[in-house]
User: What shape does this take?
Amino acid sequence: MSGPEQAMQAGDTARFLRAWLADPLAIAAVAPSGRTLARLMTAGIGPETGPVIELGPGTGVFTRALLSRRVAPENLLLIERSSAFTLLLRERFPDLDIVCDLAQRLDHHARARLPGSPGAIVSGLPLLAMSRLDQQEILTAAFSALRPGGTFVQFTYGHVPPVDKAVARGLGLRFDCIGRTLRNLPPASVYSIRRIPT
Ligand SMILES: C[S@@+](CC[C@H](N)C(=O)[O-])C[C@H]1O[C@@H](n2cnc3c(N)ncnc32)[C@H](O)[C@@H]1O
Assistant: This one.
């Protein structure tokens, strides 16, 4: 890693720690995700995916990975609740559409801002730390926005999918673990979440 990259990473870790101290439940991590996790989260996503939504981008680790997989800037919509992270993201990615709002409203923003239905949603949200109601609202909005067969990609620091069982059953969700990495602080697993066709 180059000197400027190292300095940026150190700055992002300090920002994250400050954000976590201010709102531990909304951030639910003391450091940004690493590059290995970013690669796993974006595996299988590319220009052919069409529009993509990223939820809870934080300092933009997954955003960078999505752009390096050649997702077109006009096909990428970021939704971040923290105004401090939103300002930082707008400086870093001036070509992207970045909304400061709750992920619960993602279907409204998708309809208003994207050129078509998303083929994937990449989530950095702390789903595990969220209430059952928040999970239900976010996943309902996600699967109403996603095109049929679209996937919701989520990481977790736990060993099981980070969604309440009743919520998953009610929405007819299927979870596939698509990767794990020890090279992240803490180690993480990635799940592809799809709706079982009825
Ligand atoms: C664990 S951090 C992940 C940040 C980044 N994706 C990463 O992996 O380094 C969680 C992020 O989700 C954001 N967030 C939490 N709840 C949210 C919500 N309801 N809607 C949108 N963003 C939310 C936080 O502000 C934070 O940026």
